[in-house]
Structure formats: structure tokens, C-alpha cells
Write a structure and sequence with these properties.
The N terminus is likely disordered. The chain has 2 helices and 19 strands. A hairpin with a 5-residue loop joins strand 12 and strand 13. The chain is mainly beta. It folds into 2 domains: 161 residues, no CATH class; 94 residues, Immunoglobulin-like (Sandwich).
């Protein structure tokens, strides 16, 4: 007869191990359902549940609801979350950065911080529908349009997923994770909120992305740029925490981008190519040009 202590030592199981086995087998009933809602929007957050975009760089995540949102748009529970972009079926992962780089925090039912690590940052902007602390998060990181991949769906449809960090199955330092039937790249449907959207890039408009860096290649936040458009309109934009300004839905024509405050430019690149240093750059965009059109000003702001 086997002694009780020997039996327990030989056949010992732990609850986390059993749960992991069941989840890998496609049994997700152990995971409680996620309350609340998400939706895609523009960078201001004022577009509620938008589903048509002209560029992957113009799609932002909103956790809702904010003080002016409809009562049924419940906010996510407080905590940290991961997100991913897939095709509508969820079979094809379209996000290209590590899961850990697609992480954000919800406080008081709204997104209040981007806390991703391990890849190019995802830009955030003040959510005008969730003032004063709410944010929107760009689904693509700063390498857009390289991130994320084009959907294989013929209609240009995509799906964004959000799940609590504690419900993710897999290694978040990796881009993808095969987790078995009923699990999509580490995301369990019963512990996930999703929203579908479409991107149609052949609309004849484009996104302009302006980046500000110091001489150590670090992002500079709060730096202002003026953008003069083809009809003579001028708008002033301020860089976010990633040193980036993004404006989408721009029509073809002549544009001039200039720094509002003067500084010494030590490097100016346009779509990855070096051009003569200046605090002003003018260009003409047409449908043969890339979108987004990316201008990077590197300035000697600090000694070194």
C-alpha cells in the first residue's frame, strides 16, 4: 500500500497547471466573461464606433465610455490589457510587434496610459470624449504602415481584440502564440472584447506623420508644427509623448510643414531618405506617393 504522503508526491497537481491544460485543450469556461466595450475611433476619440478608415495609421482604440458617451457604452473594468489586430475570423494575426508592446491601462472605465514595452511605441492622444484623463491609442505602432499587415479579407475588414493581461495565454514577449482550439494567438473569446473595422486605402487621401527628435534620437513631446494645406488653410499640431504628430484624411496637393519654434536642425529625413536640413519642408502629394508621408526632424536641442 502506498503511503498518503507518497501518493500526493507522485500524483501532485496544482490548480494553475490543470487550468492551463484545459485552456490548451480549447476549454475556456474557466475564464470569466469580460464586461464593458471597446470601439475604434479617430485620434480625437470623438468618432464613436467608426468603422471606415483610409489608412491603418488612422485607426485608434477607445475603451469608453467617457462622460458624454451613451449609457450602454460601458467602460472596461480597471486594470491592464493587451490588444491585437487580426482578420475578421481571427485566424490571421496582423499585428507585428510583441504582445507586451500592445499593453495599456484602464482607470475609471477609460484608457489612461499606454504601457507597452519591447517594440516601437503606439501613439496616444487626449480623448476629447473622455476628458480630462482619457486617451486614444493608435492600433499601429510608430513603424506604420509597416505595422500592421494588410488583411487577407477582400473587403478590407479587420478585427481588434482586447483582453486583460491576466487572461492572456502565452508568452507576451513573443509576437504570436499557438494556444489551441478556441484560443486566438493567446486571446480567449470569453475573456475578450472585439470590434470590426475596414480600411480602404484607395480613397485618394493620405496621412501625414511628423516626428520630432533631439540629438540623442529621443522623442520630443509638446513641440509644435504648422501645416499649410493646398487651399491655404494652416493648422498647428503638437507632438505627443512619442514625439509624433499624425493627421489623416488629407487630400492630394501641395503642403508645407514648418516648426513653430526655431531650432537647429541637424538631420531631416522624408520617408526614410535624407534631405537638406531645414525647419521647413514643402512637398506635393499625389496617389503615387506613400501614405503615411513621414517627415522626421532631428534637432540639436540639448548640449552633446
Amino acid at each position: 500500500m502506498i503511503a498518503p504522503m507518497q501518493f500526493m508526491k507522485h500524483y501532485k497537481f496544482t490548480i494553475p497547471t490543470l487550468a492551463a491544460v484545459l485552456l490548451l485543450a480549447g476549454v475556456s469556461s474557466l475564464t470569466a466573461g469580460l464586461t464593458g466595450a471597446i470601439f475604434t475611433t479617430d485620434f480625437t476619440g470623438t468618432v464613436v464606433n467608426g468603422n471606415q478608415y483610409d489608412s491603418p495609421c488612422s485607426v485608434f482604440l477607445n475603451g469608453g465610455p467617457g462622460p458624454h458617451a451613451p449609457a450602454h457604452a460601458a467602460g472596461l473594468p480597471d486594470g491592464d490589457y493587451f490588444f491585437q489586430v487580426t482578420d475578421p475570423s481571427g485566424k490571421t494575426l496582423l499585428s507585428t510587434d510583441p504582445v507586451s508592446n500592445r499593453r495599456f491601462t484602464v482607470t475609471g472605465g477609460v484608457i489612461t496610459a499606454y504601457v507597452g514595452v519591447g517594440g516601437p511605441a503606439h501613439a496616444t492622444y487626449p480623448n476629447l470624449n473622455d476628458s480630462p484623463s482619457g486617451l486614444t491609442i493608435e492600433l499601429a505602432n510608430s513603424s506604420c504602415p509597416a505595422d500592421f499587415l494588410a488583411s487577407p479579407n477582400n473587403g478590407g475588414a479587420y478585427k481588434v481584440w482586447v483582453t486583460p493581461v491576466t487572461s492572456f495565454i502565452g508568452d507576451p514577449t513573443k509576437v504570436d502564440y499557438t494556444c489551441g482550439t478556441g484560443c486566438f494567438h493567446g486571446f480567449i473569446p470569453s475573456a475578450t472584447k472585439t470590434d470590426n473595422f475596414k480600411i480602404h486605402t484607395a480613397t485618394g487621401t493620405f496621412c501625414l506623420k511628423v516626428v520630432k527628435q533631439d540629438n540623442a534620437l529621443q522623442p520630443v513631446a509638446g513641440w509644435q508644427f504648422s501645416v499649410l494645406d493646398p487651399v491655404g488653410g494652416s493648422n498647428v499640431y503638437s507632438t505627443d509623448s512619442t514625439g509624433t504628430v499624425t493627421a489623416c484624411g488629407l487630400a492630394p496637393g501641395a503642403y508645407t510643414v514648418s516648426e513653430v519654434s526655431s531650432s537647429i536642425v541637424i538631420s531631416l529625413t522624408v520617408n526614410g531618405a535624407s534631405v537638406p536640413n531645414s525647419t521647413i519642408y514643402s512637398f506635393v502629394w499625389d496617389t503615387s506617393q506613400p501614405s503615411p508621408f513621414i517627415i522626421v526632424f532631428q534637432n540639436n536641442l540639448f548640449p552633446g
